[in-house]
């Protein structure tokens, strides 16, 4: 065989193996999609992210029940039917099921950062009093001693007219002197001091938000929000800081989601490789030794539309779920699940139509069979790696089989786009293979 011919054969073997890897990876992706749709993995990861971000149970319930969250538009422009008909779940319902770790709305797979922050700020501000001085004013008004009431009332009015630390110190000091046993007033002045210090004694629209933060039950989460908002200059700056915090949390969760999908891909790839007995090493050897089979596979690769022009939406499935995040996706219908199953069946049929030596057999090899094969000049039946009997009786053959299965597993887990792109490149410069359209 000439050097040019050998090179062309090598390229054709490469095209054949890459095409098999591409189809196997496509099937992995389609099975991943089916699993993800059935288990609603994106929605569950999103809910898990919110569980980690919002550790205050009541606040979490208020956010999940907020209209901005319940009425999230789908990609097709519609909204959740429950919200559209006014049946959005209440905060108490959300709280009850979230405490039992049951997903509330499995159709929500994406929450825009702006919507989440608006729901969060709305829930926090709703906890704030209309007047931040109300508790202190009520406590002073309830005093029985007119002289003490007048002194404290004047100091409070002075503070309201000119917010500064000295006036706050004077008011707090006088409350402690006049009413050392009044815990309610001490608590009210302490809360007011905390708010005014946070906004640096400048009246700001941040005050209702910070007041709502102060009323959260979860102390660790409360302090965390205070740290995030500590340097906010105004309500818009606070909104930007909260959006950054939300995006950071979603990014971490998306990475975890991708790792989980990658793990699922490896498991599915292994199961397919074992079930179909797609042995990369054996297939490579057979393609090299059998020019007719090799050419048939190359022709099949040429006829295949590289998945981009396939009908019935199969091209949509080429993008592997491992490359997406929890912030992508749409509601899943029975029709879509049926389409997932149909895509898997079509891809499996494409693999089988290649007439490759895949699948398993179990034949007991006798000395007479070996002798007959030798007389006829056939391959030794003991060297057949598809025969389970051979694998159980030949450690070296079993090792080769395991290695070949692992190569297929790792290749299929890489994702269909990688292999289809490589197939296009090989066909573009692969000797007898025509360039990809």
Give a short synopsis of this structure.
With 437 residues, the chain is an all-alpha fold. The protein has 21 helices and no strands.
Describe the structure.
The chain is mainly alpha-helical and 437 residues long. Among the domains are: 206 residues, no CATH class; 82 residues, no CATH class. 67% of the residues lie in helices and 0% in strands. Helix 7 packs across helix 12 and helix 10 runs antiparallel to helix 11. The protein starts with a helix and ends in an 8-residue tail after the last helix. The C terminus is likely disordered.
Number of helices: 21
Q: Strand share of the residues?
A: under 5%
The tally of beta strands, per DSSP, is 0
Q: What is the general shape?
A: rod-shaped
Query: Which structural class matches the secondary elements?
Result: mainly alpha
Termini separation: 30 Å
- Output the radius of gyration: 34 Å
Please state the oligomeric state of the protein chains shown. Answer: single chain
Order of helices and strands: HHHHHHHHHHHHHHHHHHHHH
What are the low-pLDDT stretches, counting only 5+ consecutive residues below 50?
73-89, 97-104, 309-331, 429-437
- Binned, the helix content reads 55-70%
Major pleated sheet: none
